[in-house]
Amino acid sequence: METKGTTYLGIDGGGTRCRARIEDENGRVLGEASSGPATTRIGFDRAWRSIMEATEAAAAQSELTREDFARMHAGIGLAGIGRRGAEAALKEIPHPFASVIFISDGLAACLGAHSGADGAIVVAGTGSVGVGLIGGSEIRIAGYGFPVSDEGSGADIGLQVVRLALRAADRRGELTPLLAEVLGAFDQDPYQAVAWSEEARATDYAAFAPTVMRHANQGDPVGRRIVERAADAIGDLLDLFLAKGIDRLALVGGLADAITPWLTPDLRARLRRPDADAAAGALLVARGRLDLRKLDPPKRETDHEQASWFRV
Which one of 30, 92, 204, 229 is CB 3.0 to 4.6 Å from 200, fit for a cystine? Predict the structure, then answer.
């Protein structure tokens, strides 16, 4: 096959799945595909395999071969790149692209949601985090990782319901239809749940979130309390951005639509629909539409995040 012209790859690598989108020089989508989780928390090699699996599937749709990757510029939004050692580990992985810029998945989502302009997003997905851009500075709130952080996320919702299911099994709390269904997933055996928890990751806990949301919407009292708590946590992040003078807000992530009705009316009224998704934000970076060198490092009260982007 004749080699194609310059192409651009946008990757949205999160805790549940990795999405790849390839565009040509004119912004026409050539191919899209997805694969498994892509976060540094599952290991750098495994995350990279997910990235390449999604990329190769999208390339197949685009009628691109591996040789065409040498003319492909990649922007890769990846969960957990701020963890210590992530930059060094990812730089050691050989890649086939013309250029690669890694950014955090949260920054990719923020760039996509507001087309690179100032604004903020709260991610409500497997994990949760707040990311904002204002006057050339990036602001990050929470998102320290499950289980110590990520309040309001799918993983946090799943953790809460499993804990309450174990309490109900001991008759230390009421056994509602929600908790009965969760216990049923473990054959009504609390010790099976304990054994599962010893190996379970954030994505495994997050798999219970749709069940919790369904029962909460049906009026289950335990489900309602869990979801109300999650909505309060997401609302707190949105309020913090408003206090910082950022009023262009969007809620993104796999739980965004489900959690929005549980927010206060004031916050719901302030939310705007995202312009585009995290893959689009990563494509902005791949195309050089955003000069990351002018972007101040993320502001935090701690040194948790070492970097929100880097080039390899």
Answer: 204
For 183, residues 6+ apart whose C-beta sits below 8 A from its C-beta are 165, 168, 169, 175, 190, 193
Tens of pLDDT, residues 225-256: 999 999 999 999 999 999 999 989 999 999 99
**CA separation for the pair 247, 252 (Å, rounded):** 16
Contact 143/127 with Cβ under 8 angstroms? yes
Which range (7-16, 68-77, 266-275, 287-296) has the least confidence? 287-296
What residue ranges in the chain does DSSP mark as E strands?
7-13, 18-24, 29-35, 72-78, 99-104, 119-124, 128-134, 137-141, 249-252, 296-299, 309-311
What residue type is assigned to position 291 of the chain? D
Specify the 3-state DSSP secondary structure of 136: coil
Model pLDDT for residues 29-54, shown as the tens digit of each residue: 999 999 999 988 889 999 999 999 99
